Amino acid sequence: KETFEGHQVLRIIPISEVQINLLKELSKQDHLLLDFWTEPIHDSLAVDVRVPFHSLQAVRAFLGYHEIHYEIMIHDLQDLMDEEQREMMKSRAS
Amino acid sequence: QPRTTDGYDYASYHTFSEITSFMDMLVQEKPNFVSKLVIGKSYEGRPLNVLKFSTGANRPGIWIDTGIHAREWVTPASGTWFAKKIVSDYGHDTVLTAILDKFDIFLEIVTNPDGFHFTHTSNRMWRKTRKPNDGSICVGVDANRNWDAGFGGAGSSNNPCSETYRGPSAHSEPEVKAIVDFVKSHGNLKAFVSIHSYSQMLLYPYGYTRTPCKDQAELDELAKKAVTDLKSLYGTNYKYGSIINVIYQASGGTIDWTYNQGIKYSYTFELRDTGRYGFMLPANQIIPTAEETWLALMAIMEHTKNNPY
């Protein structure tokens, strides 16, 4: 079973076409194994991306260097999955 | 397992087999109203179940599907709630009763059962189908890029490892082909609603071309009404418009194909986003999500009833 310890989901708020294009470039970096939950399209839409633990530093550095604003939407994806499992088990038990 | 659909926990996420049991219970409880059609089999052999709500023969139909992207768990959960809502409200809610006195409603709760099962057992973040791709280690196709509407164009990928891989040919996925065959054989669907999550949008064709669809004005007006109704419950804001204008160019999408088949009221939803969870929307959000979406669905279904074509 694939687990997601340390994976974070970042909500990125691009403010210009330039930043959108930078995010598109980021999405082409296959080695980072990024999973875009919402794609960089235009600056009216936030971009959500799941970042594996091993890529976090690189992605944060990229965003920081280009002054692209982001928030951490999910701090540890596996924590949420574990919580979801607990909720399902609790529901079944009840 | 609950013994009746009243005992089913609508505020919890469920596995494919639990949802299937729910469907069977609903049919058993209302055999003259609800039936279960099996329109095909998934790649791994799971049944593609569709609930049919019908009060008479030879009616035009309204189609609703949920869960074509496996990890969007709130969509099949909402679909389950819709099924119970239809049964509960028929004969009590005058608007729904009037709709069901003229139309059948078809509801496919788990459109991608292999992917859905995979999210429960192996990879919660899985999106695509589960058919292996020749010559690639990557599995599955984005079933919302696999339709014969601008198939292969921009906004889909020819890389099997991409999340938006379109597949080797249009309708190559059994999960898609089953719906295609059903739509064609039925021949009288008047509305088609495909439900996704998340990003709070109600969209209409087209996604593969910037050319506006010929009914754009009416679809836009109806979308406005639907999202207004939806917002009235919990204040959830939705964007609406054509796929290509509101989100991005996406070729081979479901509702572009259904619209081109002549189903005028073709819409796709992106359900609510609390801004904190994405695909991991907590189970306590299922019922609010379903309740507000139901208002928009009712707007679309009622308009379909009142505007025959």
Shape of chain A: elongated
Helix content of chain A: 40-55%
- Strand order of the main beta sheet of chain A, please? 2-3-1-4
Radius of gyration of chain B: 18 Å
> Kindly, what is the distance between the CA atoms of the first and last residues of chain B, rounded to a whole number of angstroms?
44 Å
Can you tag this structure with a few keywords?
A: 94 residues, alpha+beta, four-stranded antiparallel beta sheet, 3 helices, 20% strand, B: 309 residues, alpha/beta
Question: Can you give a write-up of this model?
Answer:
The complex is a heterodimer of chains A (94) and B (309). Chain A has 94 residues and is an alpha+beta fold. Helix content of chain A is 40%, strand content 20%. Chain A is built from three helices and four strands; from the N terminus they run βαββαβα. Chain A is elongated and about 50 Å long. The model of chain A has no long low-confidence stretch (mean pLDDT 95). By secondary structure, chain B is of the alpha/beta class. The model of chain B has no long low-confidence stretch (mean pLDDT 97). Chains A and B meet through β2 and α3 of A and loops of B.
Q: How would you summarize this macromolecular structure in one to three sentences?
A:
The complex is a heterodimer of chains A (94) and B (309). With 94 residues, chain A is α+β, with helices and mostly antiparallel strands. Helix content of chain A is 40%, strand content 20%.
Question: How is the secondary structure organized here?
Answer:
The complex is a heterodimer of chains A (94) and B (309).
Chain A: E1 8-13, H1 17-27, E2 35-36, E3 47-51, H2 56-65, E4 69-74, H3 77-93
Chain B: H1 16-29, E1 34-41, E2 47-53, E3 61-66, H2 74-89, H3 94-100, E4 104-108, H4 113-121, H5 174-186, E5 189-197, E6 201-204, H6 216-234, E7 239-242, H7 243-246, H8 254-260, E8 265-271, H9 286-306
Parallel strand pairs in B: 3-4, 3-5, 5-8, 6-7
Antiparallel strand pairs in B: 1-2, 2-4, 6-8
Helix pairs in contact in B: 1-2, 2-9, 3-9, 6-9
